[in-house]
Each structure stands twice: as structure tokens, then as C-alpha cells.
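Look over both lines:
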Amino acid sequence: IHPNGSLHVWLPVDRAVEVATTKWGELHPWVGREDFWDGMVMIYTPESPEHLDVTMQLIVDAYNYVTGASLDAADFK
């Protein structure tokens, strides 16, 4: 997590593209450099409780992607 609250996570490529398209974050500058970086995004700092809900789901999505789990952020409220 960066000092400003933004953070990097790995997501499935289609979810990473969705993050960039919806402006919840941006693709890492090295995406496309090597397969290793595909799906890497920086999620922007949430600016409201509603944005925090989206950020939490993206973090859980990243956890699920890396571990193979199938959790939902709503399970942690």
C-alpha cells in the first residue's frame, strides 16, 4: 500500500482491464512487457464509503485469484 492509500494487486486480466476502464485504477506500466505483469493494477485510494466497498471487493478478488479461494467482500462486513 502506498502512503496515499493506493495499492497494487494482481487480478485476472479481464478484471484488471475492467478496473482500468471504469477508472477504479490503472494497469501497471509494465503490463504487456512480460506475461508476469498481466493483470497487475494499481487501485486508486477510495474517496467515499461506497468507493471503499468497491476497493474491498477488488482486494478480495485479487486474493481469490492468487489463492483459488472464492470469498466475497460482503462476507467481511
Q: What stands out?
A: Helices lie at 13-21, 49-67. The beta strands are 7-10, 25-27, 40-43.
